[in-house]
Amino acid sequence: MEQSDSNLAKEKPADVPNTEGMSLGQSGARYNQWLGKLREAGILKAERLLPEMRVPVPTALPSLMGRGAAREGLVQEIKALQPWGYSIQLAPGVLTGGAEALERTVYRSHLISGAIREGLRLCGRTPQGATAVDFACNHGYFSLLAAELGFDAVRGFDLREVNLRKARLLADQFDLASATFEQRDVYTYEGQADVVLNLGLLYHVTDPVRLMELSFAATSTFCIVDTITYKSPVSAFILRTNKDQSHHAEGAYNAELHPTYRALIDLMHAAGFVDLMEVVPEARPDRACHPLYDKSDRRCLIGFRPGAVVERLPG
Hints:
Protein name: Class I SAM-dependent methyltransferase
GO molecular function: methyltransferase activity
GO biological process, one term: methylation
Largest sheet: 8 strands, mixed
Region (Disordered): 1-24
Keywords: Methyltransferase, Transferase
């Protein structure tokens, strides 16, 4: 005899999180509890569905952070623009954050710069003579990372003027005039660059399809997409609500759609990218660590436009 739904609910194991009667505002905690139980059971593992682009991610500071010199008033300027959200060395011993946060910035610096170099190599290009655009550039650090690689011009956009003030401080401190910054909504961009940086943006929007289509239209070679992802083995987006829009690193809405790993892949293919690779660190003794990437809770993918790649890709 079949059990009724009510009987099934009563027989639910005690360690399964209760989701009955919880408010929408508690949805994030509820979902995280559920994911935790799946991890404990060993049934929520990271999938690897793409060929890998392995790049060096050492613990050494990126060369960009060695460009700045100490000067009077620098510490006060940094404090006046807090919070930064990232730890960046602007001069020896002068940081925008703590040591642990600096390790995470070092990791991402090498991962992204390595992806840019290798992506250009696969396309038969170099930074010299190339252009880049950095969507939602925040404090402009990755725009400047590209500028230091030798790009002729890098344009960074962000919603918030307070973030652009940080970006201009970094540009002055690192003496990189090839990167410029302006306040604008990414959806108003109609130009094209050789390389598009879509870093830490996808999980802050409510229209991921439109954003990825824009990313495809805006690049002549490839786009790097770095984002939070979920391990659920389905192509889907997780709704997160009650976001604080006043925070310097948040998006324009109080709700966000976070992609699963499979959704990210499907989304990039649907937008027009034909060749995808996942950017991962080389195995080496001095490899830097980052908890989100190391647990595959954050992934970095590179998507190439049709015809952009001149060298055969693995996989």
